[in-house]
Model the fold of this input.
Amino acid sequence: MRKENSSKPSIARLVKKATRYNLNEYCYLRNLSVTSLYKGYISKKAAKILMRDGIKIK
Done:
């Protein structure tokens, strides 16, 4: 389900914008958990990898 009045973009949109991959492909390539990112949990490992790739998570 899509949030209509969301003030910040989803993690999937941020990944797609910064890379050419969708979230599933990106997580497979970077060895990250897709389900935890979908649920909103970002581990220290995932945060470090995302920041290294230029994806800013707040």
User: Anything to note?
Assistant: DSSP finds four helices and no strands in the chain. Residues 11-52 form one domain. The longest helix spans residues 44-52. Residues 4 and 45 are 30 Å apart (CA to CA).
